[in-house]
Design brief:
The protein is α+β, with helices and mostly antiparallel strands and 129 residues long. It is built from 2 helices and 6 strands; from the N terminus they run ββββααββ.
Amino acid sequence: MSNGSAYDGLQNHIRQMETPAIETWKNEYDDRDYTIEITNLEFTTICPKTGHPDFASIRITYVPDRYCVELKSLKEYFLSFREVGIFHEHLVNKVMDDFAAACKPRRVQVEGDFNIRGGLKTVVRTSHD
């Protein structure tokens, strides 16, 4: 069984990685719950082990509180990962952290649905209340 030593230190920068700001705007309907779903069908990043491209759909479903996310800034945020080597699991959690910090939603779920690679399909989900 592998102890993962080939991966040691490979992803230790992810939580501190600087990304473009996700901008917000004031929600004038913060007195009610409603759901916003945003899907990026053309997300790309790099496999940190092989250097090959990874393709995915990233879906964010959230119930806003005081702020909603500005979509152009979110698109620029997503584009910043094009040349980044990052594991699927870390990517989804990084998006969650940055999204939640930007707009402080009541609830949010982030899902990364990664294309098949080597016969394996990966879907990673995380949520925050």
